[in-house]
Amino acid sequence: MPFDVVLTVYQSAHSLGGERLARYGRHGPLGCAMALVQESGPLVLLRGWVPAFLRLLPVTLFSFGLYEQLRQLFGIGYMD
């Protein structure tokens, strides 16, 4: 999620203006990332990772299980 966090903050800085624009929007996305890390530490770049993981986990588990069962049904066998 680092790119999503940086681009969201960078783009919102341009629409919100003021102090936020001066802090995050003047030196491009790389400058925005450096400002975020200086203010909040490197873990700020992982913001939003847990909800994204929890959203994708059930779909992934279901699709892999379904894929293996379809392979078995068609006589291909399980993947090793």
UniProtKB/TrEMBL annotation:
Q: Give the record's keywords alphabetically.
A: Membrane, Transmembrane, Transport
Name this protein carries in UniProt? Uncharacterized protein
Keyword Transmembrane appears in the UniProt entry: yes
The stretches annotated as Solcar repeats are 1-73
Q: Where in the cell is it found?
A: Membrane
Q: Classify the protein's membrane topology as the record does.
A: Multi-pass membrane protein
Would the keyword Oxidoreductase be found if you checked this record's keyword annotation? no
InterPro entries assigned = MCP_dom_sf, MCP_transmembrane
Which protein family is it in?
Belongs to the mitochondrial carrier (TC 2.A.29) family.
